[in-house]
Amino acid sequence: MYLTGVLLIAFPLFKFYQILKGEAGHSMVLNELVTDFRFMIFSDFIRQSGKTLRPVLAYGALFGFIGSLIYTFLSGGAVTEWVNPTQKFSVKSFFQNCARLFWKYLLLLILLGILLFVLFLVSGIFYFIFVLIAEGSSERGYVLWLLLPTILLAYLMTFGLVLSFYAKVMLSHEPRLSSPDAFWKSFSYVYKNQKTVVQFWLISLIGISITLIYIQIDRYLGMTSVVTVWVMLFIQQLTVFLRFYLKNWNYAAAAEFFKQNPVQLWQEPKQPEPEILPVVEEETEEDESTGEEE
């Protein structure tokens, strides 16, 4: 997954650098941005040459879409490995699980996108309400009023992401489960087990800490020479790799939590019991005639 992400992002970044270099010409602007990023210089450059960067945005969107499909495909095998950690790894079984779960995971991705969009709209309504309430307040009061809807937005987005982890784990556990069923079961599961959200944030805090360490190293070293550029490139790729590892760690944590707190995913439909009709004993004609003679 890491190598796939690196290869997909390499081409748009290369095109972006080519356009920047071509637009900068013999100017020292590009060198200033590399050694010491300044927002004012960057904003002026974008304002003057922003139209030339449109192809990069198109490439970025295209490769991002391709990357999401590839990641969705590979996540089927990865999640199955986390669900069955004692099973011996096999490349053949890995890709078989990828193919088996791809369409279910893709439909789950679409459902998740719809849910996140709805949750974003709900948060937007709360933002609008609190903006009206905070009207006329001081700058500090304005920030405090908007703190609550911001926390709500962060929680709802987190809830949606955690839901997707557990839905994938459920689909990997039970092959007969459909994507909509896994979606609703994971929705109920995460809602009833808020520890799953806390667990996600603990792992995310590790990722945030790694990013802050990277920023501090970048600020201390800088990219002022060929050596420091290569050193920072190595540290950057190490940071990206660790972020991929943390995302897979979320799947491992979800698989382990679900193993410790399982729920029933599938119930065989009850077969209708055959109706047993009462046996009615009919008297034969011989019995009737015998009765008449008596």
Helix and strand topology:
Layout: H1 2-24, H2 29-35, H3 39-49, H4 54-83, H5 91-134, H6 139-173, H7 179-192, H8 195-221, H9 226-260, H10 285-293
Helix pairs in contact: 1-4, 4-5, 4-6, 4-9, 5-6, 5-7, 6-7, 6-8, 6-9, 8-9
Order of helices and strands: HHHHHHHHHH
Q: Number of DSSP helices?
A: 10
Into how many domains do the coordinates divide? 3
Please tally the β strands and state the result.
Answer: 0
Tell me the major beta sheet. none
Estimate the mean pLDDT confidence: 78
N- and C-termini, Cα separation: 95 Å
Structural class from helices and strands? mainly alpha
Beta-strand portion reads: under 5%
Helix content class: over 70%
Question: Residue ranges: pLDDT <50 for 5 or more in a row?
Answer: none
Structural shape: globular
Q: Which radius of gyration do the C-alpha atoms yield?
A: 30 Å
Would you give an account of this structure?
The chain crosses the membrane at residues 57-84, 105-130, 142-167, 197-217, 223-246. Keywords: Membrane, Transmembrane, Transmembrane helix. Residues 269-294 are annotated as: Disordered. The chain is an all-alpha fold and 294 residues long. It folds into 3 domains: 1-89, no CATH class; 101-192, no CATH class; 194-261. Helix content is 80%, strand content 0%. It has helices at 2-24, 29-35, 39-49, 54-83, 91-134, 139-173, 179-192, 195-221, 226-260, 285-293. The protein starts with a helix and ends with a helix.
